[in-house]
Amino acid sequence: MRHALIPLAALALLSGCANLAPSYQQPAAPIPQAWPADGQAAVSGQPLAGWQEFFVDERLRGLLALALDNNRDLRSAALSIERARALYGVSSAATLPSVDLGGAASRARTPAGLTTNGNASIADRFSTNFGLTAYELDFFGRVRNLSDSALQEFFRTEDARRSVQISLVASVAQAWLQLATDQQRLRLARETLQSQQRSYDLIRQAHALGAQSGVALAQAQTTVESARGQVAAYDSLVEQGRNALALLAGTQPPDELLPGDQSVSVAPLPTPPADLPSSVLQQRPDVLAAEHALRAAHHDIGVARAALYPRITLTGSAGVASPSLSSLFEGGSRAWSFGPSISLPLFDNGARRNQLRATEVQRDIVLSSYERTLQVAFREVSDALAERRTLAERLDAQRALVAASTRSFDLAQALFKGGSGSYLEVLDAQRALYAAQQTLIGLQLTDQANRVTLYKVLGGGWQATAPSATAG
Question: Is the pLDDT of residue 466 over 50?
């Protein structure tokens, strides 16, 4: 029985003699080697290791950890990895023979008219064997390329999950910052409403005594009602922001993880080194995922090419057989079978050739998608750096504008209380101050959101040299 399997093993070793898949070389990146000069001039810093080093606010860190544990999109991405791993296991198993153990028993009666001696007969048969069924000798690499393509799909899903995680971290941080900003704006709107309500009460009292005109009273009332509308609008935005965080976190976040209404900061966030090459983008998870898809497309071409050649499969078994169960394992009961088969494509109206051409075109489509992924990544980083370059100057100018507007409002109030100014000047100065304060809050959010965007578009961190490509 052992000797009967030796030919099967020898033929199995001959499989995989050729690989018809085209050799893979990483495509040249269709992007400049460096960032635009204006963007480079605005950056300096050290590489990052992860989001834990990027975000320092303990509340935000806690919320990020909660989201990473409960977000359903990230959970689905992790399950996709498990599915891809299982499918790769199925494909790789086909590269080796599978041996099954079986047993059978049968009893058959032959009628008298069908026997040579004219007597009915009953025959028993008992057998047990182990063997392989339809194992393909992979002379042209078809099975191996199927397995390698599945492996690249597994790698792609891993990088896709990393990309989802980075996007989730950035989305949670930006939603948290947006909520903090809306809470600051709500607080400012409430303070403004209270101030305008006090002014309105004073004008109403003065109007009752004949010291202020009805025009001044009407103007004071319009500012109160406008501020009341602003309070209601920002109150709604705060509630919507909390709902957005709950969706991203995958559960209702506790109040202690939500931002307060005071000014918040992600951190003095690091920025990439000025001499960082654009090749760092090839480390982005979405770019790596696109490259794994390209590698898989090369292996798919190998599968399509192998379909043009003969396929040889083996079926064989070795065991024992006997007409009685008691003598099944006695000497002389050994049995074996060996059945190779070959399938040679002759004429299929060009179906296999067209399938090969379709696979080659699909490879070109995936290549174009890979290149576009790199180009989009380059633009995202360039845009973020361009915005980063002017943010400090814009913030300084806005802070100066708030200071000037505050002085203008204080002077207008002093002149009005001294009787040498109109209430309309006070209202104009107050509106200008409120608008300047709201714009400053928005710019502070833009500054922090830009740093989060840099974290995201650089793949959650950066290194000076790209890692070696995964073997395909």
Answer: no
